[in-house]
Structures are given as structure tokens and as C-alpha cells.
Design brief:
The complex is a heterodimer of chains A (about 230) and B (about 750). With about 230 residues, chain A is α/β, with parallel strands linked by helices. Chain A has one domain: Rossmann fold (3-Layer(aba) Sandwich), CATH 3.40.50.300. Chain A has six helices and ten strands. In chain A, strands 6-7-8-3-9-10 form a six-stranded mixed beta sheet, with helices on both faces. In chain A, strands 2-1-4-5 form a four-stranded antiparallel beta sheet, covered by helices on one side. The longest helix of chain A has 18 residues. Chain B is of the alpha+beta class. Chain B is about 50% helix and about 15% strand. In chain B, strands 1, 2, 3, 4, 5, 6, 7, 8, 9 and 10 form a ten-stranded mixed beta sheet that branches. In chain B, strands 11, 12, 13, 14, 15, 16, 17, 18, 19 and 20 form a ten-stranded mixed beta sheet that branches. The chains are: A alpha/beta (about 230), B alpha+beta (about 750). Chains A and B meet through α2 and α3 of A and α14 and α19 of B. Bound molecules: adenosine-5'-diphosphate and magnesium ion (MG).
Chain lengths: ~230, ~750
């Protein structure tokens, strides 16, 4: 399996101990889209951060493309994130004083074989807005910039944490279509987090996170195009 | 108000920054009070001394005695007194100028001990007394007599105890000894000096001229006429004190303005980032005044404490500084320091006013918005400023683009960095430059290889062929027409032998002795080039002469015009072969009655080292202060930059940027501005130093060349840049401390 997580546990200490992940297992095949469903506070972001190498698990393993992420030290994690992972966040996280093109360049600047900027801008439909600053764009457009930024290095794994969480339904549909198209065009393995179950229809695999574990895994035989998702 | 608890927390969270601001304000207030207190008190001491002890307005020596002094006094409204002086060599190369006590003008003031009461008692100048460890009761053998030391003394006409009027500092080993008039009689060759002070203190200058005219009309021949306003023994102290007084303004102002910029910036950022809180507080009934108070309290508190601390701690430095100065440099009686309450209040309150106004101006606008507007948090979003928007950076590499954008993000921050570095480099460079100018002049004098060892001046002009092995000269002390503060000797020298030392022009070619040659510094001061005409006025009799400059001598030693002796004599209407002095390689035994002075040319420059010490100390302390300021400014800017870029830094970490790469992107973008600040500091320094030098020139007839040694510029720059790199390095920890969760948790835009 391209991505496999085994017996992952994680807890936070804030005076009291909050166990967030309690022996979580999951797998995702190469080139597939996975959607993780779960209520707010269930630990989705925590899981995603561990897979992405920005947080550390207490125990258990995460393997991505035969690399055991949970074994890596801080420097190796930097290289792992740099080389293999693309991130898309709920609140876009664009750098406000960089233009659209420059925000994307933030990533191409450190990747070995970045895709051509123009091609990416074309793919996300922002060619004519590449010299704008983030605050001059709508939420949906900003999220598209953030997707462009995530995929320009052609990552092995694309992690999207509630990418539509801050968007209205129309913009959401556009963003999801974009993610689906990228998956088809580049074969990027994608793990997407959401608390919106309607999105599940566009995924190859759907996980339901409950009580710190994956309670349910479903495989869709037929994928619904993202533009047809109903809210 | 509960809000007050936050103040402590805010101060603690940003303690590095507030400490930096504290130090800048402290330096500002400290230097204000120290310079002001020093110069104010010293000025007072000198004034009181001049007034109480009847400092001369003019002194003169004549070829014959003035018989009827009292009628001259009545005629001119002057109090005229006489004293005698005589230089005696002591053992160990020491030398005392014995001066007889006068009672009407230039009355000596006993500092320690008592006035001479019995025969063979002597008061010493405190510099001499201290340097050689004399004690009251010691005896000094002068010729064959034993004099008993009865104390130390200050003389109004020797505030700066120069041996020769054109010396830069008193030669080593030289001191003053005040003795009773009767004791002076054992030195038959003592010179009689007339001194005069006018009772009417208005328009002294005109009265001096009047006195001169009265004397010359009586047909008395004067050999020396020294106006107090051109007398370095009297004026030098003034120059230093006004210089120090002038310094009491720009340094603190620069510090306070820098603090205004940075504090304004910090408070503004705080208020903006807290706009939602502010809006909420408004909505719940807080008044604008209360919030204004809350945000102003931090800058007001910090500036008040720093200003007060700086002012108060500066006070105890005044006494020892003056004490040292009155003993070793400008000798006046010193009883106590008078502190000016106004100054202390100013020192403490100025920064409060500066910073209070700056902060108020900055937050007023934000606080004026409606609660609804504030709560929307709209203004929290990073706006893109004009520069960022208009600059087209497409041709740059991403890294450079990023760096440029990072720097342009906050223009006030950039200005602060630029001005701060400018101020720091200014201080370093001016220290070096002053030192440099002094060194150049003195080493130019020291390295001059004199063709003669001795200069003998005669009381009366001689005629005919001088003693063999000597070269005759004739000179008048003069000033250019209309500029009395510039004083120099116009000297005619025999063309038969080399000059006192060899003079070359700008190309290194030896200057012809058959022409009129002016020294470089004097030419520069008068703005003269070859072929220009100058009108020279004889200081003694006011007659003026026209000269055309033929050559400019490349030397930093002194201000002079040399011309052939015969031409000179013709010009001033003397017989062509007359001369008033000779230069000589060997000592010559002239009879003491003939001589008015002997100068040891080679020993003139020995005093250089002593002058260099305080200069070096000034440079070193300026450099240290400049470095501290540099560190603080760069630290403040760097820490603000990191703070403002928290989001970006965190994000870059998530994306897999290595810490070195992040550091380079975020921090090294300021390098060009550090360099630009330094470069801007150079012209600012040159302009200020030129003004300072011109001022010194007017005050004490001291001409200094402005030389910025490239090596010193390189040293200053290296130092500053090292400070910058070091500060960046130490801020690396701050960078490392920013967690990735910042980016993961919330949206930035
Ligand atoms: N840094 C942290 N410290 C303490 N508790 C945390 C931290 N991050 C997350 N949590 C807690 O862990 C749980 C899961 O959080 P998260 O993974 O963000 O949930 P989700 O993304 O599913 O909404 C929550 O209860 C949250 O309060
Ligand atoms: Mg989450």
C-alpha cells in the first residue's frame, strides 16, 4: 500500500491528558483519493499532521511510499515534507505580501522538478490573476492558489485539511473538481479531510473516524464527478 | 482597571525590545544631562572666574616702559596692570614659567593652600603640581634659590596653560609658578607684560581698539598685542565648552527620534492586531480615553523611567569630569556643581513627550474607529503598501523577490533600520575622523624633518648679515581682511637657504622660495587657489597688504604664508635686510637682553602622545556607544521582522524549508539597507564634521583637514556588519522557536 497507518496513538497534555488517536489503522492505495470523515474535534487534523510530518505520534507507524515517517528525525522530516508532501489548508494560508505567482513559487523554489508555473496557473484557472495579491481574490480563488502551490512540486501525497471548510457551495464544488482533475491528470494520491459526508462520493476510499479510530472504511466502485456533489 | 495587569505581561513578553528602547532613551537622557551639566557648570566657572578675578581683555608688551599708567587708564577707561614672567628650566626637563602676582587684572586664585606671604614662596598650577606629585611644603630649587610650595593656583590669563600662544597643548613638563613681585626681581631678564580690562563690559572690542590707538599715538612701540578674543590661553576653554554644549542637543534628539519610530511602530502594530479586542471593549462600554490611557501607558512608563534614570545617573558624572578638566586642562577654581532643575526635568520629560506624542499620533486614528468596524477585524488583514504593489520584481529570482518583499512590508521598520544604522555609523565615523584629523596634523608636524633646530626671536629687528649658519626671517601676526578669527603668520624668509622644513606642492615638487607660498590648510580655509589675491592685515597695527598666491604647500602642519624676506620687508616698509629672528641648526649664545623668545623646533611635537590619549578615548567610547546602538537597532528590527513574519515562517517550515533557508529569506534581506545606512552615514558625518571644524576654526583658529581614512571606513563598516551578523545569528533561536502549528491552526489571511 502506498500509505499505511498502523496502531497510531496520540494524546495531548494540557493539565489533563486528552487521548486523540487511540490505535488508528488505515491504508490508501497509490493514485487514489481518500476522504476522512469525522466530527469536529475527532482528531482528523491531528492524524493529517502526523502523516504530513509536522507532528509526531506517541506510538504506531506511518509509512508513505515505503518510507516510515514515524521513524524520521526532525531534519529528515524537513526533507520528507519538502520532497513528497503537498498541503492544502482550510484557511488557504497564503503569504499576504506575495502575489499569486510568487505564492506558488514559494514551493517550486525548493522542489527538484517543479511543474511549469504557467501550466499550473492554467490548470487552476488563475493565469490572468497571477500578479494579484491574496487579499484581492475571493475565497475560492485563494484556495485554488493554495492547491496550485501544493501540486507544483508534483507531490507523492496531497494532504487537504477541510479545503472547502471556509467556502460556499459553488466555490467548494470548483475546488473539489480541481482536486479531482489533478488526481486524474497527475495521478496524485490525495487524502482529504472533511466533516461533510457529501464529499465522500468523489473518493475511492472513505474512512469514518470515531473515538480515535477508523470505525468504518468503505470503497466506492463508482466515483461521482465533483461538480455533481450536492450540499 | 483590569487592563493594567496586561501591561506587565506585554512588557515581559517583549522584554528584549523594551530593554533596547530603554537603553536608547537612557543614552539620550544621559548624554543630554552629562553634556549640558558639564558645559553649563564649566561655563559658569569660567565666567565667574573671568569676572571675579578680572580676566584681561588685552595684554601687550612694549619696547619701553609705559610711564604714566594712570593717565592712560583714565583716558581709555581700562584698568591696567603689569606683571612679569620668566621661564626657568628645572631638573628632569621640567620648566616653570614664573609669574608675578598681580592685584588689579588677572588676579590669581588660590585653589589649595594660601597666597605667598613670605619671600621665596611659590604657588604652582595644578596640572604641574599633580603630575609631578608636589606637596605643600616641598621646596623647588630655582637657579640658586629654594622656593617653598604653598599651594596651587589658577590664573585668568592662563586658563589653558600654553607656553607659546600658538601651541596646541602645553608642552610636557611645563607648568606655571606664581611668586611675589619682589621675588621676581632676582630675574632681571623677566618680561614685563601689560594687561588691561575695561570697566565698561559693553563693546569691549571697540575699547580695545581705542586703547591700541591711545598707546600708539603716544609713540610707544609695541612688540606684542594680544587680544583676549584671539588668545588661546583664554579662548580654548570656550571652544571646548561650546562644543560640548552643542553636543548636548543632537545626540539625545537622535536617540529620542529613533525611539519614537520604533515605539510608534510597536504600539501601532499592537493596536492593530488587537482591533477586535478593542472593538469588543468599546462595545461593552469602555471609553476611548480609557483605552488611549491603556495603550499609552507602556511608552510613557518606559520613557519616563529611562529618561529619569539616564538623567539622574548622569548627575554624579559631572563633578569628577569637571574636576579632572579643571586640574589638567582648563584651570579655573572649582567649588561645586550646580544642577539645573530645568535640565533634569527636561532630560526626564523630553523622551516622555517625544514618545507620548508619537504613540498618540499612531493609535489615535485606530481608536477613533467605530466598535463595529473594529470588531470586523478588517484592518487586521495585511494591507499591501504602495511600494509592494508598484514594484515589478519579475526579473528577480524567487529568493531575492521574497527578500525584497519581506523588507518592503513595513516602511517605518525600514526607515528605522536605515536611520538607526546611519546614526551608528555616523558616530563611529566621526570619532575616527576627528581622531584622524588630529593625528594627521600632529604627525605631519612630528614627521616634518626640520632643517633647523632652533628659532630665535629678537626684541628688536636686526639688520645686515646674521650669524653664519642661521637663516633670517621677519614675520607679522596677521589675519585676512574681514576675518579676524583666522590668525596666521605672514613670514618673510631669506631665500639663500632652505625653509625651516621642505615644502612641496600637490604634485610633490619642491616649491620655489622666490614666491609667495601658502600652507594648504590656510588656503583651504580661505578658499584660495594659485593666482588668487589676498589682503593680509597686520594684527598689531591694522595695516593691510596685498599678496598674490604663487604656491600652495602640501603640509598639514600649521597655517602660514611664506615669502622672500626682501619682498616682505619691502611690503611692510622695512629695510630689505632687516630681520626679527633667525632659524639655526646649532644653539647660538645671544645675550638674553636681545631675545624675546627661543623655540626648540624639534621638541615642539613631543606633546603629541599626551594629546592622543584623550582623543583615542573619545574615539573608543564613541565606537562602543555606536556599537551598542547598532546592536539595539538591528536587534529591534530583526525581532520585529521575525514577529511580523511569524505566519510566513511557520508556513515555510511546514512546506519543508530548511532553517538556514528560512533565515536567509527572512533576515538577510536587510543587508542592503544596513549597507545603505552606513553609506548614508558618510555624507552626514562629513557635513557635520565640516560644520564642527569650521566652528573650531572660528573659535580657536585651529585648522583641521577633513580626512576620512578609507581604512577607518572599512573598520567601521566591518564592525557594524559584524554586529549585524551577530544579531542575526542570535535571532536564529527566535526563528527556531516559532512552531509549525501557527500555520496549521488558523488562517493568516
Ligand atoms: N496542540 C494541542 N494541544 C492540546 N490539545 C489539542 C491540540 N491540538 C488538538 N488538540 C485536541 O485534540 C483533539 C483533536 O483535534 P483536531 O485533530 O484538530 O480535530 P479535528 O481536526 O478533527 O477537528 C481536539 O479535542 C483538540 O482539542
Ligand atoms: Mg481539523
Amino acid at each position: 500500500m502506498f500509505l499505511s497507518v498502523a496502531n497510531l496513538t496520540k494524546s495531548y497534555q494540557t493539565g489533563i491528558t486528552t487521548k486523540v488517536l487511540k490505535g488508528l489503522n488505515m491504508e490508501l492505495g497509490k493514485g487514489q483519493i481518500g476522504v476522512m470523515l469525522g466530527p469536529s474535534g475527532s482528531g482528523k487534523s491531528t492524524l493529517m499532521n502526523i502523516i504530513g510530518g509536522v507532528d509526531k505520534a506517541d506510538s504506531g507507524t506511518v509509512e508513505v511510499a515505503d518510507v516510515c515517517v514515524t521513524d524520521l528525525n526532525d531534519n529528515q522530516l524537513v526533507e520528507y515534507r519538502r520532497g513528497k508532501v503537498g498541503f492544502v489548508f482550510q484557511f488557504y494560508n497564503l503569504i499576504p505580501n506575495l502575489t499569486v505567482a510568487e505564492n506558488i513559487e514559494v514551493i517550486s523554489n525548493i522542489s527538484k522538478n517543479p511543474l511549469p508555473l504557467d501550466e499550473i496557473l492554467e490548470a487552476v484557472g488563475l493565469t490572468d490573476k497571477k500578479n494579484r495579491f491574496p487579499r484581492e481574490l475571493s475565497g475560492g480563488e485563494q484556495q485554488r492558489v493554495s492547491i496550485a502551490r501544493a501540486i507544483i512540486k508534483n507531490p507523492l501525497l496531497l494532504l487537504c485539511d477541510e479545503p472547502t471548510g471556509a467556502l460556499d457551495s459553488n466555490s467548494s464544488r470548483g475546488v473539489l473538481t480541481l482536486i479531482q482533475n489533478i488526481n486524474i491528470q497527475f495521478g496524485t494520491t490525495t487524502l482529504m479531510i472533511t466533516h461533510n459526508s457529501a464529499i465522500a462520493d468523489m473518493a475511492h476510499t472513505v474512512y469514518k473516524l470515531r473515538d480515535g479510530k477508523v470505525a468504518e472504511t468503505a470503497h466506492n466502485t463508482e466515483l461521482i464527478p465533483a461538480e455533481r456533489i450536492e450540499w | 482597571m483590569v487592563l493594567r495587569k496586561r501591561i506587565r505581561r506585554i512588557l515581559l513578553e517583549n522584554k528584549g525590545r523594551y530593554i533596547g528602547i530603554f537603553i536608547l532613551i537612557f543614552i539620550g537622557s544621559f548624554s543630554f544631562i552629562a553634556f549640558k551639566g558639564f558645559s553649563g557648570n564649566y561655563e559658569r566657572l569660567i565666567n565667574e572666574f573671568a569676572q571675579k578675578n578680572m580676566q584681561e581683555d588685552v595684554s601687550f608688551t612694549g619696547y619701553e616702559q609705559i610711564e604714566d599708567i594712570s593717565s592712560l587708564e583714565q583716558e581709555t577707561g581700562a584698568i591696567i596692570d603689569t606683571h612679569k614672567y620668566y621661564d626657568v628650566p628645572l631638573h628632569h626637563e621640567r620648566e616653570l614659567r614664573l609669574i608675578s602676582i598681580s592685584h588689579k587684572v588677572n588676579i590669581p586664585s588660590v585653589i589649595t593652600g594660601r597666597m605667598p606671604k613670605y619671600p621665596r614662596e611659590i604657588l604652582l598650577s595644578p596640572n604641574f603640581y599633580d603630575t609631578y606629585g608636589y606637596e605643600i611644603g616641598d621646596t623647588i630649587k630655582i637657579n640658586d634659590d629654594m622656593f617653598e610650595v604653598v599651594g596651587t593656583v589658577a590664573l585668568p590669563n592662563y586658563v589653558f596653560p600654553l607656553k607659546y600662544i600658538n601651541d596646541v597643548i602645553p608642552p610636557p613638563g611645563f607648568g606655571l609658578g606664581v611668586i611675589a613681585t619682589d621675588d621676581m626681581d632676582v630675574f632681571p631678564d623677566a618680561v614685563t607684560v601689560y594687561t588691561a580690562r575695561f570697566t565698561d563690559r559693553d563693546n569691549v572690542k571697540a575699547q580695545v581698539t581705542g586703547l591700541y590707538n591711545s598707546i600708539t599715538q603716544k609713540g610707544l612701540m609695541l612688540s606684542e598685542w594680544m587680544d583676549a578674543s584671539a588668545n588661546k590661553r583664554i579662548r580654548m576653554a570656550w571652544a571646548t565648552i561650546s562644543g560640548s554644549k552643542a553636543m548636548s542637543v543632537p545626540v539625545p534628539t537622535a536617540m529620542f527620534l529613533l525611539c519614537c519610530l520604533i515605539v510608534g511602530l510597536m504600539i501601532w502594530r499592537m493596536v492593530r492586531s488587537e482591533s477586535i479586542i478593542i472593538g469588543t471593549l468599546y462595545a461593552q462600554g469602555y471609553r476611548r480615553k480609557e483605552l488611549l490611557q491603556h495603550y499609552l501607558s507602556i511608552p510613557l512608563m518606559v520613557s519616563f523611567i529611562a529618561g529619569l534614570a539616564g538623567s539622574l545617573l548622569a548627575l554624579p558624572t559631572i563633578y569628577p569630569t569637571i574636576k579632572l578638566m579643571v586640574t589638567l586642562y582648563y584651570i579655573v577654581p572649582f567649588d561645586k556643581v550646580v544642577h539645573s532643575l530645568t535640565d533634569i526635568v527636561l532630560g526626564a520629560l523630553m523622551p516622555v513627550i517625544f514618545l507620548g506624542l508619537a504613540s498618540w499620533a499612531v493609535i489615535r486614528k485606530e481608536l477613533a474607529k467605530s466598535p463595529a468596524e473594529l470588531m470586523k477585524g478588517d484592518i487586521q488583514k495585511a494591507k499591501v503598501n504602495v511600494l509592494e504593489r508598484t514594484l515589478k520584481l519579475d526579473y528577480l529570482s524567487f529568493n531575492n523577490k521574497f527578500k525584497v518583499r519581506e523588507q518592503l512590508r513595513s516602511i517605518p521598520r525600514l526607515i528605522f533600520l536605515l536611520f538607526g544604522v546611519m546614526a551608528a555609523s555616523f558616530m563611529m565615523l566621526i570619532g575616527f575622523t576627528i581622531n584622524n584629523s588630529m593625528t594627521t596634523v600632529f604627525s605631519s608636524e612630528a614627521n616634518t624633518s626640520f632643517n633647523y633646530s632652533w628659532e630665535y626671536s629678537f626684541k628688536e629687528a636686526k639688520q645686515g648679515t646674521p650669524v653664519s649658519g642661521t637663516i633670517p626671517f621677519n614675520a607679522i601676526r596677521s589675519h585676512p581682511e574681514g576675518r579676524e578669527s583666522i590668525e596666521f603668520y605672514l613670514t618673510g624668509i631669506s631665500t639663500d637657504a632652505p625653509y625651516v622644513y621642505d615644502l612641496v606642492d600637490g604634485k610633490g615638487n619642491e616649491l620655489s622660495k622666490e614666491q609667495v607660498n601658502i600652507s594648504y590648510l590656510l588656503a583651504k580655509r580661505l578658499n584660495l587657489s594659485i593666482g588668487d589675491r589676498i589682503t593680509v592685515v597686520n594684527k598689531l597695527d591694522g595695516k593691510s597688504y596685498y599678496l598674490v598666491i604663487d604656491g600652495i604647500a602640501q603640509t598639514y602642519a600649521g597655517q602660514f604664508i611664506y615669502m622672500p624676506l626682501s619682498d616682505f620687508n619691502e611690503l611692510i616698509g622695512m629695510p630689505t635686510d632687516s630681520y626679527k629672528g633667525v632659524f639655526s641648526k646649532a644653539t647660538i649664545e645671544y645675550s638674553p637682553e636681545e631675545l624675546s623668545g627661543i623655540k626648540d623646533l624639534k621638541n615642539m611635537v613631543n606633546s603629541m602622545d599626551e594629546l592622543m590619549m584623550p582623543m583615542m578615548m573619545v574615539v573608543v567610547s564613541l565606537t562602543i556607544i555606536a556599537s551598542i546602538i547598532g546592536v539595539i537597532i538591528i536587534y529591534l528590527v530583526t525581532s520585529l521582522t521575525i514577529e511580523e513574519s511569524r505566519g510566513s515562517i511557520s508556513l515555510l517550515k511546514v512546506f519543508g524549508y530548511r532553517s538556514k533557508e528560512i533565515k536567509r529569506l527572512i533576515l538577510s534581506g536587510s543587508s542592503p539597507f544596513v549597507i545603505a545606512g552606513f553609506i548614508l552615514g558618510i555624507p552626514v558625518m562629513l557635513i557635520s564634521a565640516t560644520a564642527l571644524y569650521r566652528y573650531l576654526g572660528e573659535m580657536i583658529n585651529l585648522a583641521l583637514p577633513m580626512i576620512l581614512n578609507p581604512l577607518h571606513a572599512v573598520i567601521s563598516f566591518t564592525l557594524l556588519y559584524a554586529v549585524y551578523e551577530f544579531t542575526k545569528l542570535s535571532c536564529g533561536r527566535k526563528l527556531a522557536a516559532i512552531p509549525m502549528s501557527d500555520a496549521l491552526k488558523a488562517g493568516m489571511e
